[in-house]
Amino acid sequence: MRVLGLMSGTSADGVDAVLASFSGAMCRPRWQILASASVPYPERLRQQLIAAGQGACLSTAELLDLSEAITLQQAAAAQQCDPDGLAQLVGCHGQTLWHRPPAHGQRGASLQLLQGPLLAALLQRPVVFDFRAADLAHGGQGAPLVPPADAALLGRIAGWRAVLNLGGIANLTLIPPAEGPERHAHLSGWDCGPANSLIDLAVQQFSSGERSCDAGGAWAAEGNPDEGLLSEWMQEPYFSQPAPKSTGREQFGQTDLQRRLEAMHHLSQSDQLATLTAFSAACVAQDLRKRPPVELLVAGGGCRNATLMGQLRRRCRGTIVRPLAELGIADQQREALAFALLAWWHHHNHPSNAISVTGASQPLVLGVCARPA
């Protein structure tokens, strides 16, 4: 079956699309990427989404306009990736505006902006969307949802295999070994902390809006991280919280950045960026110390930040750190491919959340399907 996956992540930089084919067993399907595309958001839309994702007040009319604009961008990405309409089904994550994990007896909730029926009408294909809601309704975090897809698409090796996505947030998948005493361990995964979110916001602030990111990590490479501050930051409650756990810009956004910049006021801008970059790597490295993997496969925009990748390799000694692209899934394809698979699983009524990852009370078929009239 040919399925189109659409993903727009915490970085809010655009929509990634993958057209893939799936067949065979649900737990270990045969798959092939047929086409892919990445469509950036217009800058004004991107800024609106970043502001909304950090709690900016929107009127009802503005929220409605934003949801329609997001849907049109998803449709444009789908049409660029699949101009001949080969896909039989579409899986779309939508754009996260706010994520509230369950805490202190309160059920979690999450807002992904998308008009699913409109997207189905525009593409004339069934669209599976709203993937987080069922997991949240049953006590789960609603995220991360990609770990089961990682396990199904990549399979196991002789030791623990980790998959890291460096988007706005760093999220991690740990796949148990194929053999040995730990082969019966549960799949696990969680959000480690910030990846590009704080770095990008700092670059925008330091450059007065002229730059949106630290291209290649060149600016951070001019400085040196403050290891004392890093050690202090790593003692914060989120980083000692056990999985399942999930987060986003609501925690690691502009307010958090300003607090950290105040702590670094004595440092140069390049040292501040070096410290924020090392912080993203340190969050991952600290989590991996609990169960060191044989290899760490890295995807997402952060793969193109050489300074961040260098920090990961330095702080994850003993682990082979390499791009997921070496296994045939490019940086911007991993999550879109995963949501194509989640849609395929929905079509087959196959549960796709991992309760060991999200903490939900039971396995669930995720997503809601909107069909064109």
Please characterize this protein's 3D structure:
Strands 1, 2, 3, 4, 5, 6 and 12 form a seven-stranded mixed sheet that branches. The protein starts with a strand and ends with a strand. The chain is built from 14 helices and twelve strands. Helix content is 36%, strand content 21%. Helix 11 crosses helix 12. By secondary structure, the chain is an alpha/beta fold. Helix 12 links the parallel strand 10 and strand 11.
Summed up:
The protein has 373 residues and is α/β, with parallel strands linked by helices.
Beta percentage is 15-25%
End-to-end distance: 21 Å
Uncertain residue segments: none
State Rg: 20 Å
Q: Portion of residues in helices?
A: 25-40%
Write the CATH fold name of the largest domain.
Nucleotidyltransferase, domain 5
Major sheet? 7 strands, mixed
Tertiary shape: globular
Provide the CATH superfamily of the largest domain.
Answer: ATPase, nucleotide binding domain
By DSSP, the count of extended strands is 12
What's the CATH class label of the largest domain? Answer: Alpha Beta
Average of per-residue pLDDT values = 96
In the CATH hierarchy, the architecture of the largest domain is 2-Layer Sandwich
Tally of separate domains = 2
Order of H and E elements: EEEHHEEHEHHEEEHHHHHHEHEHHE
Name the quaternary structure.
Answer: single chain
